[in-house]
């Protein structure tokens, strides 16, 4: 198939609009859209708990802070550690771009542990409540990546390949859209339906970790690895290596949840 038959990604200004020194970018806007959507759905889930709207607002606010701080710190330490060693101030250059989901997840876990103590509940109960909301933010973030023409896929000749001018003018997998479909849409549907019925504590969190880890592991085979990192043994990327502990932990949480439920039933 000739190169001219492929869709060429249009030139999209990463800045939506500016108000004086303030510039609103697509990526940031998608984070905001994801947060608002998650908040609205969280209110729907709130009726199943004894928590108040104020507690919900605090929970989601600090989870959002955890995503931003953890995402940035994780990106620098997982993917740009050499640059950090050369210039420690690089950590604070958020405007330069760079967020890591795995770092963001760690940030959210810290926020949940803190909020669990404040709300006098368990960490896993909060995790089960938040887990079905996370894919909304993930999906919104991947659309932001696509609009920014970043984190594109590996070269390919599939009919739906896209030429990203910033990626060498060769057809590539639109891996951002693969992640949107799997980690955003499909994972949301799975978690929303699974959590619609009472589940043992920790099971919903386990399904999230297993689902995200598995989907991300698969998509990494279509996503261009970071040039300065490349691939490790067996052709695995940095993202895939970070997904393996998630998959293992997810399976462990699911087994633990149902094992404890059976033990309690026998008693």
Folded structure, characterized:
The chain has 267 residues and is mainly α. Helix content is 60%, strand content 6%. The strands form two sheets. A three-stranded mixed β-sheet has the order 1-4-5, with no helix packed on it. Strands 2-3 form a two-stranded antiparallel ribbon. A hairpin with a 2-residue loop joins strand 2 and strand 3. The longest helix is centred in the C-terminal third of the chain and has 29 residues, at 238-266. The chain is globular. It starts with 6 loop residues before the first strand and ends with a helix. The mean pLDDT is 90.
> Structural class, from helix and strand content?
mainly alpha
In order across it, which strands form the biggest sheet?
1-4-5
Strands, count: 5
Number of domains: 1
Helical content class: 55-70%
Write the layout of secondary structure elements.
Blueprint (H helix, E strand, L loop, with lengths): L6 E2 L6 E5 L2 E4 H21 L6 H27 L1 H6 L14 H19 L3 H8 L3 H14 L14 E2 L7 E2 L2 H20 L8 H17 L18 H29 L1
Parallel strand pairs: 1-4
Antiparallel strand pairs: 2-3, 4-5
Question: How would you describe this structure in keywords?
Answer:
mainly alpha; two-stranded antiparallel ribbon; 9 helices; 267 residues; 3-stranded mixed β-sheet; 5 strands
Short description:
The protein is mainly alpha-helical. The protein has one domain.
């Amino acid at each position: 198939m000739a190169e001219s038959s492929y869709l060429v990604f249009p030139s999209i200004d990463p800045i939506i609009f500016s108000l004086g020194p303030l510039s609103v970018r697509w990526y940031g806007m998608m984070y905001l859209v994801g947060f608002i959507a998650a908040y609205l759905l969280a209110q729907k889930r709130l009726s199943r708990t004894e928590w108040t709207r104020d507690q919900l607002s605090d929970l989601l606010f600090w989870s959002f802070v955890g995503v931003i701080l953890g995402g940035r710190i994780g990106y620098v330490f997982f993917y740009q550690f050499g640059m950090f060693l050369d210039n420690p101030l690089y950590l604070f250059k958020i405007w330069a771009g760079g967020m890591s989901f795995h770092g963001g997840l760690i940030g959210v876990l810290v926020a949940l542990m803190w909020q669990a103590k404040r709300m006098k509940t368990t960490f896993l109960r909060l995790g089960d409540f938040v887990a079905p909301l996370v894919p909304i933010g993930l999906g919104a973030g991947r659309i932001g990546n696509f609009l920014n023409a970043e984190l594109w896929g590996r070269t390919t000749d599939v009919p739906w390949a896209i030429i990203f001018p910033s990626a060498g003018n060769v057809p590539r997998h639109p891996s951002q859209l693969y992640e949107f479909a799997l980690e955003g849409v499909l994972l949301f549907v799975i978690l929303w339906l699974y959590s619609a019925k009472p589940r043992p504590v920790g099971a919903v969190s386990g399904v999230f970790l297993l689902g995200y880890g598995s989907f991300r592991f698969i998509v990494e085979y279509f996503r261009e690895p970071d040039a300065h990192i490349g691939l490790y043994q067996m052709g695995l990327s940095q993202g895939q290596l970070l997904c393996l502990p998630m998959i293992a932990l997810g399976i462990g949480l699911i087994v633990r949840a149902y094992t404890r439920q059976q033990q309690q039933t026998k008693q």
